Amino acid sequence: MTETAATGGARPRRLLHTREVVCRGYVREDGLFDFEASLRDISANGTDLYFKQVDAGGLLHGLRLTMTIDADMQIVQMQAHSDTVPTPFCGESSAFYGQLEGLRIGPGFTQRVKERVGGRKGCTHLTELMGPLATTAVQTVMALRRETRDLAVELQGDAPMPRPAVYNTCHTYRQEGQAIQVIWPDRRRGVA
Q: CB burial class (10 A; 0-12, 13-18, 19+) of residue 32?
C-alpha cells in the first residue's frame, strides 16, 4: 500500500516497519516506583526470518521490561520478558537483566547498563529499551516531586538556592542559556 508523505513534498512512500515503544511509571503506596516498558516491532507486509515467517501486520519483537526503583533512583528489581522474538534462542538473554539490580539511574547509567547487558551479554532491543525506561523513571519521580512544591515561591526572593537538577542537561538548560538565568539567576547562586 502506498501513501502520500505528510512532509517532504508529497512523495509516494510505502510503510515497511513500525516500532512502538510505550513506557509507564507508577508510584506505590510503600514509596517505591514501578515501571513498565514495551517494545513492538511490526512488519507491515510480513517477512521471512531465519526461524519463522511473520505475516503482514505481525510482530517481529514483542518485548517488555519491568523495573522497581527506590526514591534514590536505585533499581531494586528488574525483569525482562521476551514474549515475541524472531528466534527460539532470544529469550535466553532475559535472565541477564537482573544484573541491573543495584544500579542507580543518573549520570553514566547508559554506559553501566551496556557494560552489564550490552552486546553479546543481552538483547540489543531490550538494552535499547533501558534508555526510554530510565527517562520515564526520572520523569515519574520528578512528577511526584512537583506535586509537593510551589515553583512561584521558589523563584521569588534573593536567598541562595541549590543548582537545579536540569542544569547543563540539554541545550535549553545550558549554564549560559536564558532558561537557567530565569530559574537560577546569578543573584541566587551560592551555597544555601
A: middle
- Which residues in 12-25 are b (16+ Cβ under 10 Å) and which e? eeeeeeeeebebeb
Model-level pTM? 0.82
CA–CA gap between residue 115 and residue 129 (Å, rounded):
15
Sequence-distant (≥ 6) Cβ neighbours of residue 60 within 8 angstroms: 41, 42, 43, 47, 49, 54, 84, 86
Predicted local confidence at residue 192, as pLDDT: 45
**Per residue in 38-71, is it b (16+ CB within 10 Å) or e — as a string?**
bbbbbbeeebeeeeeebeeebbbbbbbbbbbbee
Rg of the Cα trace of the chain?
21
- pLDDT exceeds cutoff 50 at 83: yes
